[in-house]
TrEMBL record:
Residues 77-126 form the F-box domain. This is F-box domain-containing protein. Pfam families: F-box-like. It comes from Trametes pubescens (White-rot fungus). Transmembrane segments: none annotated.
Amino acid sequence: MAALPDSIELSATDSSPSTGRNIVLRDLRRLDPSSIPAEVLRATVDEHLALLSGSVQAIQDIAIHLRYLRNTKAPVNRLPSEVLVRVFSYSVSTSSNEDDLVSATHVCKWWREVALDYSRLWSTLSVTTLHKATTFLQRAKDSPISIVIRDSVVVHLFAPTLRRLIPRLLSLVVEVQDTESIIPIVKGLATCTAPLLETLHIVGQYRNESDRDAVYVFNTQSMLAFRSSDQMSMDAVPETPKLRHLRLNPIMPPWYCHIYSNLSVLELGSPLTRVPISELAFLRMLRQCPRLERLNLEMRLAAPFVLYDDPQRLVRLPMLSQITFHSFPHAHVARLLTHLVLPATTHYEIFGSAKDVLTQPTGPLESPARLADLKDFRMAEVLVGYPRASDILSYFFQSATLGSAGPPMTMYIPDMLGAVHDIVPAIHVGIPGSIDVLMLRGYEQGILEDLDDLDWIPVFQSLVYLRVLHLRDVGGTYALAGILKGLGPLAVNDDWERYGGSPGSGWPCPELETLELVGTRLSGDVERLIFEWLCVRADAGVALSTVMVAQVDGPSGTFLERLQELDIVVHVMDSSPEWYADTKTFTGEF
């Protein structure tokens, strides 16, 4: 610690008109009150206190000035304002903590001046308190605003300010724990002009029946407004001309509203209440978005309809890369998709309950009414036992490596499907009869061990073009026997009549050529089972030509020799066959 001075020259501090006068601090420390009359002591002390107070303030001012002079030469202050602005902008764009920007203004006077002078730094705001919001908005001046709100209480408090900001909104994200608080926001945006708005996310949650009732009433009024309004016109001037990304759940403005036009991303959800809009009205809305790139729907339309082959009813979306349906009945999805003209590279994800899947018809109709009949599928993959899931996911997409093979279709059967015996019927109605390659696998090894008594015959009887059957991680002898019995009898006491009137006549999968087993435990019992089944198929005139085994501990030499005696080509591989690598393994969450 620096030593205290013995005296202070008042002329140096400009605290006294007396020039050259000194306050001797040593003498003041040695004042003895016992030797000085009270009146003299009081006068002396008051005089020096007044002088010292002025000196202290002057010294503090000088210290501040000296620090400023020192900081002006500090390396951090040699950065031009343009560079500092870029540093601050990068910090804002990469950090979700807005306190970092506030902290930057406390580093020094220069940083604070630069930060406060660049209003766009303060134009992105996560509203947590009104005080913070007011500060940021003042510093943002007239810049376009991006706002995030994740607290229902804050929504109520901030709503009046938000309404005034609508003309300046660049992005608005509201994700809260109720639905009633977001209704005024949706109403305001539906009736106001937002010329700069590019992104709008309004997402609420159901807390109670009151929230659900409020959603139903609002969405119903939206439909009534649609019916009483003029039909949407491509020539109409939208009041959100720059809006490209729209996400609403579960509150939705009237369907004629300007926000449903010229979108690139449209995400609509109302999972627990039926949305009062017909497919016809929905198609009209999609027609307003010819450049749509992603469509995500999690709702049930209240008014299905049947459209005849009318070219004017088709909606062309040439830029759509992904479409997702959640909570739609599969038959409803299939009917809706027949009126959408999409590029071959579009990725499809269709989630549905077991009930929706199982109520589909099992045979092709004149007008497609199930997903399996929607496209000329050549490949299908079925995964059984996906954990912690309640919905069946059907996923299909165009793979560049498949060429003319067409899009593969994937079904994910959850472990919480319900009745165990619903698994095979779900697969039966879910996969198309046009495929020539089927991959059936368990989510984990042995998942199908307890399903050996399931009836697979109807599934394989519908796959009349199947050439390749790929079984992966299906388990041991019992699980494999249950599946193979669907392709032909394994014992004398099997019900041969179910496979056709005579051996080979009307048998399941008459074109089957190749059996691929991946991750199967090739015990002696499994090898005998496979050999017996191959012999039965050969005797019936529907023999296989190829057997491939991969990622197994074997097979035995005897097994390979016996297969060769049947003129079957055997391939033993360390990894899965190439065609499987071309398909997509689902990595998302239900």
